[in-house]
Write a structure and sequence with these properties.
It is built from three helices and no strands. It is an all-alpha fold.
Length: about 80
């Protein structure tokens, strides 16, 4: 096998793995957004102003937690 063929094969494998990683990251992001939207929807439907304030105040922390949970669900591995 010539060197170009080997390098081409390795490049194809790398591109495939990179594409798979992109697909995984996209799935994680979509799941996180879906969960956050559902949580936000339910909290808004509760008509409880305390819950609305809670969501606003802890939006970033909740998002980070949902992202971690989504990553664990999609990859089957805990991030920590």
């Amino acid at each position: 096998m010539d060197r170009h063929c080997v390098n081409s094969k390795a490049a194809d494998q790398y591109a495939q793995r990179a594409g798979q990683q992109d697909d995984i990251e996209l799935a994680i992001e979509r799941l996180e957004i879906q969960w956050f939207d559902e949580l936000e929807h339910h909290l808004q439907q509760s008509n409880n102003p305390i819950l609305a304030v809670f969501l606003d105040r802890f939006r970033d922390k909740i998002g980070a937690l949902l992202a971690r949970m989504a990553r664990e669900k999609v990859t089957g591995k805990d991030e920590i």
